[in-house]
Every structure is written in structure tokens, then in C-alpha cells.
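INFO batch 0412 | record 1 of 1 | parsing
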Amino acid sequence: MTTGTYIIPTAIYVEKALDTSHAVHVMDDRAHLVPRGTVPSDGRVIKIDGIVAPGFLDLQVNGGGGVLFNDDPSPQAIDHIRDTHARYGTIGILPTVITDAPDVIDRAADAVIAHGQTDHVLGIHIEGPHISQGRRGTHSSELIRPFDERTFATLCRLRDANITTKLTLAPEVVDPETVHRIAKLGVIVSIGHTVASNAQTWAAIDAGASCATHLMNAMPPLINRDPGPVVAIMNAGLACGIICDGIHVQDEMIKLALRAHAHPDRIFLVSDSMPTIGGPDQFDLYDMTVRLTEGQLINSEGSLAGAHITQAEGVARLVNAIGLNVVDALHMAIDAPANMMGRSDLTNVDGRAISDLVVVANCAQQTTALSAILEKEWAGEPAQ
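INFO prediction complete | emitting C-alpha cells
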């Protein structure tokens, strides 16, 4: 790739703000921020109508490109899924294995250990199997089970390999003492797929649960005399993922959550995406066919089975449907998930590989890889 190029975008996303005083100097395929006043008049300068930002992070990715992690828990599948999402502006994923047989979960853990944790594969999310039957969603009823030593051994193996591990569980299924034992390993304990009472949820939080999985989905509704898990999660200010596809959580509820949460800057965008992203419009899960119909992934039981949305589309909806400004929307797809994972290094533009950066334009309606824009420019085509 050509070096010594200067990029002057509309702005650069830096620490939840838009920087208009710097340009991006591309050297050796890396971005370096320089004051705009230092850009040489005789240098190669590309002006871009859009915001240069770090690529998005997604902490709930079940599949992509026709591949489901549960069905193919291998290092090769992880790379395929990650590469698929990278085409849509998501540069870092947390591969997610949902409720399944112990052997499948073990193989998923082994695949991430063999792959190794990187800037692009951030660890593993084990969603289930220790969850509520009543709020299982598309998770297999037959494979839901109490917490056991086999799961604990898997968590130990992951942590011994320094793999960042997130485990979604239901507080009414896993007692506070066990939650504390898991959290002491350094596992991110996330509350989800639960019918826990408010008191049970607070007990899990006090024991070390620090996150919530797809807030409001697979949780009881808000009731005045029975506040349930959602209220405890928001009052405690836990980090929590939320799906913004207009299907899983009604837009008015997302607006409410962003206003009511004790620390709204800890709410992060997730896709809960499935193999249909960059792949065919149907796939099999638990021997049932899941079909994409009018934007929804529906299994033969009539339940939602993940989501068909990219992080870029979620960011666009946060701006254009929820009414956030672009900075706050980008924060939910970049800084908030990075901070939850302890990876603040992934929120920077300066020093990053060009392939890890995106350009967000037209009120977030368009997200394009910066490398693709540069390749077109260097080929003689105009930049966007």
C-alpha cells in the first residue's frame, strides 16, 4: 500500500469527541495523527467527507458468512466469521457459543485457545447453558442444565490461557456463592436469559456479576411491584449489551434505558448476529431451520433466533431511529465495549493499522473501511 499519504476527513473520532484539528498521516500502513497545519502543501492529500474512527467491536457474534460458531467451533471458523464482519466495519468480535452439549462448549473453548486472543478476536462469550427455561428464547430446552464442575473446569482452562471469558448465566439458576467463585477467576459474569427476582439479581451483582446480556431481551418486563432483573441491572449501573435492530427491543425502550441507566456510558451495542450476515438467508440451529423473514430470524418454534444486523447498521439506527448524536452512537460501538473488556487500546486511531479504521458518513448511514477508500484513491478513483 502506498505510504506518505495525508488524509483530511471531516473529523476524527477521539475519546468520545470529534477532532477537527488533526489529519491522518499514513505511513507503513499505519495511521498517525498530525496537526492539520503541518500537512505539506506538496504532499499527497486526500480529503474525505466523513468521520475517521476505529472499527467497531461486537461482544455477541454467533456467526457470519454462512458459519455458526456452535456448528463449527474451530479456529478457522472464528477467522471466517471475523473476516465476514470486518467487511461491514466490525474489526473485533467476541465469538459466542450458545447453550449446547458440554463437548461443543469445550470445543469452542479449545478453538479460541488454539486461535489465541488478538485485537480482532477478543476472547469468548459462553451464553448459557446455565440459564432459565422460562426465558430461554431460541436456546435448546434439552441442553439447559445446572452449573457443574465441567463448566468450571472449562472456565479455568480458558483463564489459564489468558483468554478473556464472558459467561452469561441466570442468577436464579446459579447461586451467589458460585457466581463469586466464577468471578474470582477473572471471568466476566453476565446476567441474561433470566426470570430472577430483583433480590436474586442484586445478590448476583454483589457476588461479582458485572455485566448483562442483551438488556431486556430474555428478561421479564418492568412491573411496578416486581422490578425484576432489568431494574436491578440499570440501578447498579452494570455494563450491558443491547440490540438495536428495531425488533429485539422497541426503540422507545432503548430510549428509556439510555435515560434510566445509572451509567449510560456503560451500555454497549451488540448485534447478536447469525450466519445470515454475509451468508445465505437461512441456517440450521438445534436441527431446526432458522429463516430470515422481513428482517427477523425465526425458528420453527416461532422464536427469534439471534439477529440479522451489523454493528454499522446498529450505529445508524442509534442515530436515525433513537436520536443519539453520532459521537454517542460511536461510543456505544467502540469505547463502551472496549472499556468493558479492558481494551481501551482499541479506542484509538493514532498508531492503528489502516485496516482497523473506518469512515462513517451521512449521519452514520454509511460505514466504509478506510483501507478500501484509500485503495480506490490510489487506483485513481475519487474518495467518497
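INFO post-check: The CA atoms of residues 62 and 299 lie 15 Å apart.
INFO record closed
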